[in-house]
Amino acid sequence: MIFIIRGVMLSISAVVFFAGWDGIIIAFDMNKVIAFIIALILLEFPIILAVAALYGAVNAWEWPIWGAILLVMWPLAFTIIVNGIPSVFSLFSLSRFKN
Asked: Where are the domains of the chain?
């Protein structure tokens, strides 16, 4: 199961990388090879790459802004889902009401 989750996370990260690559190409009207090298460097700066990916998803791929935000913010959404579901169940736990 963990391999499936890691595979999905890696796939989404690759899509974010390519959206950032396209964002750099469009924003700076740059050669694809140079933009790819810059995108590789920006892997060390995830916030800047996320902005480029948001720009690339909206302008290059013509995604709606909410889809691009979900693409870029998927780690936050994943964390909320994984950590939020058990915390909701713990709120309604019967052991909490025992004396």
From this structure: 2-73
Nearest residue to 33 via CA among 21, 23, 43, 51 = 21
Which secondary structure element, helix H or strand E, spans residue 38, and what is its range?
helix 32-42
Q: What is the pLDDT of residue 29?
A: 96
pTM for the full predicted model = 0.78
Statement: residue 62 has pLDDT above 90: yes
Q: 29 in the Ramachandran plot: left (φ > 0), alpha (ψ -120 to 50) or beta?
A: left
Which value, to the nearest 10 degrees, does the dihedral of the CA atoms of residues 23, 15, 58, 51 take? Answer: -60
Cα separation, 75 vs 97, in Å, equals: 34
Q: How many CB atoms lie within 10 A of CB 73?
A: 14
Report how far residue 92's alpha carbon sits from residue 95's, in angstroms, rounded to the nearest whole number: 9
Q: Is the pLDDT of residue 33 over 60?
A: yes
